[in-house]
């Protein structure tokens, strides 16, 4: 049945057009819009009432004239074309190819507004995902089906870290692994960097990339993560793959929500963000998990830059409530030229304890990670003390902790942005570094492990 076309709109303001006396349309419905010259653009229904319908225009309302604008409601939501041939391809924020490789064929089209997983259908995540990064694999382990965000700041190397994880990640013991990489509001040079690195490193034929640029219309920014997650769900639950979704930068997404909320006249909440920011973020983050009876799984690493490095800002604050831990990047470590600059004392993975150890990584993993946390925490205390009394006044044990801290940062935390480390190598390196400390200070590991992994120093 052909859809009715409305000629002329009541008002145009910002990215919105107001159409009067519309019947038979639904919230989120896709809209076809033509200007007086016949040029076509798309929009989406954002608000409904008996008198008028508010439509958000994807590519902006420039050159639209109220009397000459034609609007057709298409009777379907915003959709993404899904196919197994998406692997290795690059798309824009609306799911249209941007790699000059032509349109997709086969597959199907689905509504991008998927639903969070039913808690009763979830299976508890346990399997370890290898990233090749010692600080993550050993101390903030990523588990298949987990939501583990990275909290960064402007100028910190989160883009390099995102690419390194995307190209190195894999589920140990499974070849059915894919990465969906979503760049949200990224600058042109960052987009070029992502395309170059993702195509030349790792298994590029297993990566699907969505790139929304900073100068693209704001409304596209809202669609990009949903496009990526719909793709991940298709690959996971219909093709049986284990999918890692990396989304950067979620702060750009939240800024777009705020901008559109102000334009629509919504009442703002904390720092001007809409009051529904928590539920909106939850609708994205909760589309990850392991579903009982399904072969595949969806794991998420959302990356966000904290405004003014403020971890209490609404975006990281609400993200921390929804997700299962966080990886925090340190400006202090970055200033020391340590990459990746992961602050392990403020980072944690809440699902780590059930996905490491015997049968998952290695039997000594839980005790080693606990000892590293405890020892590095002591390093910070000793450094503070040394800043007051001077290093010469420290005890022999305190000096040993200072030495441990330098070796730990320089040899364990620091690694190349193309260096991939096996979990066994990371754990062996951890034991080697713990050998810098007196055996009496290793209170989180057993004597049997000390004898097995730390060579006795010659007196």
TrEMBL record:
<dbReference type="Pfam" id="PF00006">
    <property type="entry name" value="ATP-synt_ab"/>
</dbReference>
<dbReference type="InterPro" id="IPR004100">
    <property type="entry name" value="ATPase_F1/V1/A1_a/bsu_N"/>
</dbReference>
<dbReference type="InterPro" id="IPR055190">
    <property type="entry name" value="ATP-synt_VA_C"/>
</dbReference>
<dbReference type="GO" id="GO:0005524">
    <property type="term" value="F:ATP binding"/>
</dbReference>
<dbReference type="GO" id="GO:0042777">
    <property type="term" value="P:proton motive force-driven plasma membrane ATP synthesis"/>
</dbReference>
<dbReference type="Pfam" id="PF22919">
    <property type="entry name" value="ATP-synt_VA_C"/>
</dbReference>
<comment type="similarity">
    <text>Belongs to the ATPase alpha/beta chains family.</text>
</comment>
<keyword id="KW-0813">Transport</keyword>
<protein>
    <recommendedName>
        <fullName>V-type ATP synthase beta chain</fullName>
    </recommendedName>
</protein>
<feature type="domain" description="ATP synthase A/B type C-terminal">
    <location>
        <begin position="354"/>
        <end position="451"/>
    </location>
</feature>
<keyword id="KW-0378">Hydrolase</keyword>
<dbReference type="InterPro" id="IPR022879">
    <property type="entry name" value="V-ATPase_su_B/beta"/>
</dbReference>
<keyword id="KW-0406">Ion transport</keyword>
<dbReference type="InterPro" id="IPR000194">
    <property type="entry name" value="ATPase_F1/V1/A1_a/bsu_nucl-bd"/>
</dbReference>
<feature type="domain" description="ATPase F1/V1/A1 complex alpha/beta subunit nucleotide-binding">
    <location>
        <begin position="132"/>
        <end position="349"/>
    </location>
</feature>
<keyword id="KW-0375">Hydrogen ion transport</keyword>
<feature type="domain" description="ATPase F1/V1/A1 complex alpha/beta subunit N-terminal">
    <location>
        <begin position="12"/>
        <end position="75"/>
    </location>
</feature>
<dbReference type="InterPro" id="IPR020003">
    <property type="entry name" value="ATPase_a/bsu_AS"/>
</dbReference>
<dbReference type="GO" id="GO:0046933">
    <property type="term" value="F:proton-transporting ATP synthase activity, rotational mechanism"/>
</dbReference>
<dbReference type="Pfam" id="PF02874">
    <property type="entry name" value="ATP-synt_ab_N"/>
</dbReference>
<dbReference type="GO" id="GO:0016787">
    <property type="term" value="F:hydrolase activity"/>
</dbReference>
<dbReference type="InterPro" id="IPR027417">
    <property type="entry name" value="P-loop_NTPase"/>
</dbReference>
<keyword id="KW-0066">ATP synthesis</keyword>
<comment type="function">
    <text>Produces ATP from ADP in the presence of a proton gradient across the membrane. The V-type beta chain is a regulatory subunit.</text>
</comment>
């Amino acid at each position: 049945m052909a859809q009715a076309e409305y000629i002329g709109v009541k008002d145009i303001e910002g990215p919105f057009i107001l159409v009067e006396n519309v019947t038979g349309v639904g919230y989120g419905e896709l809209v076809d819009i033509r200007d007086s010259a016949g040029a076509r653009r798309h929009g989406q229904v954002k608000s409904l009432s008996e008198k008028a319908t508010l439509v958000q225009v994807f590519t902006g309302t420039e050159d639209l004239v109220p009397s000459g604008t034609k609007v057709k409601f298409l009777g379907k939501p915003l959709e993404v074309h899904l196919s197994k041939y998406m692997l290795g391809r690059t798309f824009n924020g609306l799911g249209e190819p941007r790699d000059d490789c032509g349109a997709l064929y086969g597959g199907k089209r689905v509504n991008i507004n998927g639903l969070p997983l039913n808690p009763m259908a979830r299976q508890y995540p346990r399997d370890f995902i290898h990233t090749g990064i010692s600080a993550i694999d050993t101390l903030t382990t990523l588990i298949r089906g987990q939501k583990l965000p990275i909290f960064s700041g402007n100028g910190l190397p989160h883009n390099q870290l995102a690419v390194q994880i995307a190209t190195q990640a894999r589920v140990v013991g499974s070849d059915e692994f894919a990465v969906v990489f979503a760049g949200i509001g990224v600058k042109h040079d960052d987009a070029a960097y992502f395309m170059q690195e993702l195509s030349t490193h790792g298994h590029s034929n297993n990566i699907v990339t969505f790139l929304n640029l900073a100068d693209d219309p704001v409304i596209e920014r809202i669609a990009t993560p949903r496009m990526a997650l719909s793709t991940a769900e298709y690959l996971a639950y219909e093709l049986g793959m284990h999918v890692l979704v990396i989304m950067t930068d979620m702060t750009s997404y939240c800024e777009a929500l705020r901008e559109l909320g102000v334009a629509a006249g919504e009442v703002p909440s904390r720092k001007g963000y809409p009051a529904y920011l928590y539920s909106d973020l939850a609708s994205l983050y909760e589309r990850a998990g392991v579903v009982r009876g399904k072969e595949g799984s969806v794991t998420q690493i959302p990356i966000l830059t904290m405004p003014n490095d403020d971890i209490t800002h609404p975006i990281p604050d609400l993200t921390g409530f929804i997700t299962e831990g966080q990886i925090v990047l340190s400006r202090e470590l970055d200033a020391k030229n340590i990459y990746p600059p992961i602050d392990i004392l403020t980072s944690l993975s809440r699902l780590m304890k059930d996905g490491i150890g015997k049968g998952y990584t290695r039997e000594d993993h839980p005790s080693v990670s606990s000892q590293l946390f405890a020892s590095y925490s002591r390093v910070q205390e000793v450094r503070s003390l040394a800043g007051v009394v001077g290093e010469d006044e420290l005890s022999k044990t305190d000096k040993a902790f200072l030495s441990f801290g330098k070796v730990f940062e320089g040899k364990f935390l620091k690694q190349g942005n193309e260096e991939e480390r096996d979990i066994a190598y990371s754990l062996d390196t951890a034991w080697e570094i713990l050998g810098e400390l007196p055996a009496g200070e290793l209170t989180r590991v057993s004597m049997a492990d000390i004898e097995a992994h730390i060579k006795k120093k010659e007196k």
